[in-house]
Amino acid sequence: MSTYYVKNGGSDAASGLSDALAWETIAKVNGSSFNAGDSILFKRDSTWREQLTVPSSGSAGLPITFGAYGTGADPIISGADLVTGWTQYAPAGAAQDTQDLSDANGALGYDRYQAKLAQKITPASSYAIQKVSVWMNRYNSPSGNVWIEIWSSSGGNPNALITNGTSDTVSAGGISTTAALVDFNFTTPPSLLSGTVYFVVVTRDYGDSTSNYIKVYNYAAGNYAGGTYWEWDSGGPTWTDKTPRDMRFTVYSTGASTNIYSASCDWAAKEVFEDGTRLTAIAWDTNIATTSAAMSAGTWTLDTGGDLVYVWAADEADPDTHAMEVTTRDRCVDGSGKDHITLDGLDLEQSNSHGLYSGDSTSVVLSNCEIAYCYATGIYMSGSGGGENTGHSYLSNHIHHNGSTGISNVTYGGDCTVRYNSVHDNCWDTTDNTTAGIKFYSGPFGSEDPDNNAGHTIEYNHVYSNGVASGVRGAGIWCDYSNANTIRFNRIHDNLGPGGVHVEKSSNCVVTYNIVYGELADHGPSVGRGITMSMDDGSADVSDNLIYNNTVYNCRELFVMYGAGSTKNISNNLIKNNIFLGGVDNDFFIYTQGRASGNAFSYNCLGAEPIDVDWEGAAKTTYAAWETAYGGTTHSVEADPLFTNAAGGDFTLQAGSPCIDAGVDLGTDYQMALAPGSTWP
Predict the structure, then answer these.
(1) Does the N-terminal peptide bond of residue 610 adopt cis geometry, omega within 30 degrees of 0?
(2) CA dist 161 → 169, 203, 499 (Å)
(3) Which of 164, 276, 299, 484 is 20 to 30 A from 215, alpha carbon to alpha carbon?
């Protein structure tokens, strides 16, 4: 068993077997082979802007470990690159030179004699060009691009391209088939001098064709302005004087400077950070002139056609005065197909998709890591049905501000442990629905089987503030088509999704000793719930789940059992020894449409009357009325449970609480509590 070291300033030509001989790059790690029990340690206070692709598997009891050494902050594996060299954007100002008349002969790309079209201008005053707007229309389907060039003059003839004289390109296929103005913007505006002759040149990169071309619009056929106009013969190459024809265009000078800056970005970036703070994305709208109207301090946008990223810094300064990071790589770590791997003490951040991604792996341990600001999930683990995606452990990690689910275990899998994690402020991406702080889901989609992804233990986690007020994004802990899970000793609060604990189309789960509170979202009918059991289609039963010894407080609905729209059953679920207090809309919302049987409610506390139980569409405000609808006694504790300080998050019971020793004996399997001296997360 060997230990390898990696640090900024190391050498990939070295052995890697000590700090003095440390490797430098993750690429070196990715290209190496390791043996079971080996460790690869990254130096603290260091950053790598590369993806770690795990190259080898360990074995049972001898994992390959990727960890940290030295002192300082944990080593960072970032999915983002630093971007510098920002250029200030100035919107188009006043119209400076306009050619108003044109004839019918400007057909760009019709044949080799019209490879470029040129029109003379002589500025009356000096200015810099921000854009040129040209009247054009498209004939059929030219496949390339069109752009503007500004040329100097020699003897009154087009001579050569001037400095910064090339505009951004416009796709020929995107130009309208009816005459319209087409804007050509200059990223770096070229400067023109008063009284000097220049030429506005329209050019293209597609081949000659008599059927697929761009026509410079003949705005008023037969009228000539007397301007000087040339066509370029690419076979010569020579310019041919076609005076007195004209093109119709307008040249605009630069306007006042803005706080928006641009930099080159030829990849599909999804996030931009200023000194570590994520900026707000603004959707691109045709061009920067229109998009900038929606921007403000602390925003950014991406022009994928022009390969530019635009930023308005939070302090409105030049972005080059800040550390500007733009997400580049899809994953920080990819462990696909590798088994018995440990990641310990690493900081995975700012990827275009996932912090840790692993498919078809077993026994991956992620411990003491921070995973943050990834556009999709913090941890995404999946399997394809061959016994993989099992035995993973996620221990004492800090997982936050990721766009989708914090910890996601999907399709096939089982026997995973999620323990002592802090999972918060995830699920902010409004394009990704049905997300959660922690979620287990079986697949594949359309043929889900709850036994495909089952038997997980989720305990001692602090799960809070996940989601946005839109859709069903941001449950606390969500088992979706996932059987036989144990969810216990978790503190869950202030999430904005469909439940603090959401058991959906799942059976044989145990939900016990959790504290759930502050689930108050009200932006839809399926959110703001404490503990939920549901099946809203006909694909799986919800049965034999045990909901014991939980405290649920101050949620829009404290407990929900929902079976509408399903042909399956919601049956034999036991809800016992729980405290449900402070439902805003309902204490209980039970709506099964006749699909329920054998569900038992007993020894729960809903506080003093009046209570608020919605039982199959009928409101019950007394325990007696509820028991009549239920069909038997509930042995409920009909009084205030006397929390020590619920508003402060202390749900211990005061001496003299009516709930002390008032529950039913559940047997030795449930004679458990937190270890002496410990607290909920």
Answers:
(1) yes
(2) 16, 12, 63
(3) 164
What element of type H or E holds 18?
none
For residue 221, name the pLDDT band (cuts at 50, 70, 90): very low
Which two structure tokens, joined as six digits, stand for 353? 């998709």
HEC per residue, 513-567: CCEEECCCCCCCCCCCEEEEEECCCCCCCEECCEEECCEEECCCEEEEEECCCCC
- Compute the residue count for the chain: 681
92-254 adopts what CATH topology? Jelly Rolls (2.60.120)
Q: What is the pLDDT of residues 40-59, one digit of tens each?
A: 999 999 999 999 999 999 99
Sheet with strand 80-82: strands edge to edge = 80-82, 324-327, 272-274, 277-278
Strands 299-303, 308-312: pairing is antiparallel
Encode pLDDT of 526-579 as tens digits: 899 999 999 866 678 899 999 999 999 999 999 999 986 667 889 999 999 999
- The counts of H helices and E strands in the chain are 3, 67
CB atoms within 10 A of CB 134: 30
Tokens of 268: 């599909």
Strand locations in 207-339 (E): 213-216, 229-233, 238-241, 249-254, 260-264, 272-274, 277-278, 280-281, 299-303, 308-312, 324-327, 331-334
What is the pTM (predicted TM-score) of this model?
A: 0.81
Domain boundaries, the chain: 82-88+261-324, 92-254
Give me the amino acid identity at 380. Answer: Y
Would you call the peptide bond into 444 cis, given omega within 30 degrees of 0 as the criterion? yes
The Cα angle at residue 193 between residues 190 and 196, in degrees rounded to 5 = 115
Mean pLDDT for all residues in the chain: 89
